[in-house]
Amino acid sequence: MAQSQGWVRRYCKAFCKGFFVAVPVAVTFLDRVACVARVEGASMQPSLNPGGSQSSDVVLLNHWKARNFQVQRGDIVSLVSPKNPEQKIIKRVIALEGDIIRTMGHKNRYVKVPRGHIWVEGDHHGHSFDSNSFGPVSLGLLHAHATHILWPPERWQKLESFLPPERSPMQSEEE
Amino acid sequence: MLRGALGKTFRLVGYTIQYGCIAHCAFEYVGGVVMCSGPSMEPTIQNSDIVFAENLSRHFYGIQRGDIVIAKSPSDPKSNICKRVTGLEGDKILSTGPSDFFKSHSYVPMGHVWLEGDNLQNSTDSRCYGPIPYGLIRGRIFFKIWPLSDFGFLRDSPNGHRFSDD
Hints:
Chain A has helices at residues 2-32, 131-134, and strands at 34-38, 58-62, 76-80, 88-95, 100-102, 110-112, 117-121, 137-138, 142-151, 157-158. By secondary structure, chain A is an alpha+beta fold. In chain A, the strands form two sheets. In chain A, strands 1, 2, 3, 4, 7, 8, 9 and 10 form an eight-stranded antiparallel sheet that branches. In chain A, strands 5-6 form a two-stranded antiparallel sheet. The termini of chain A are far apart. The relative contact order of chain A is 0.18. Chain B is of the alpha+beta class. Chain B is built from three helices and eleven strands, in the order αββαβββββαββββ. The longest helix of chain B is centred in the first third of the chain and has 29 residues, at 2-30. Chains A and B meet through α1 and β8 of A and α1, β3, β4 and β8 of B.
């Protein structure tokens, strides 16, 4: 009797020890280093989800790269939606703070991106709920960089940071 | 001897990572102690007060009108601001000051909140930079720890109702 009780207690102790190590480490890793996510919707076609609803891409979200809020024009990033905080959206960065850009469908024809904000757009113009609808977004909403496509295997690739030349800013602060 | 030192170093690194991760989970999902600076929340929170902030309300979307929140500054994501929520999405708020002749109201957009400091004369808040997205809120302040003369739960806004409900 005493022997089986000792066995159970040792098992519980080892389980608790492992649990309190593994869970915080895993949660911290998924919050701070990297996680994966499935992309829904057609707003980033043809870069993401070219097959539409038949197959959704799964991307690697790199939190570590976004830890200092450093983004470049052309990066694909995920951010908290400014209209619905429960949802994350994945878009391409088109303009940084201080840039003046020509918008596509926004209420103002030309917009200067305020300090601490960025302008994001989906690659599939017209089918995208992006800055052309809700204006520049604060960098504080930045969630992660989308760096690689992981699934389906035939679409394994590194996502390149590419700014379409027709979407370059008319005037940027560095000039 | 080298083996012993290497073993000790690995154990130290292991413990540091483990406690660092527990600290991250505690600050991110439960709450933490914060020191506030600036005059914009007087008399409720003075300069250099130490308060306790909890992050559970943010994750469960339970922030209400009248809560004091910590949020990332909309113009500088690396710094935090501490203000009171005076309007939720859909509320009608007064967006001009009391000295303006023509009063104008506007509605807080979906997914945004309107922040105001308690010290209305000396506060840059939503009256200056507009409503901020809910996603910028980091936590809710509900308890003051220092100075001990002011220890306890935080008071309601001294400014009464400057807004009207929908």
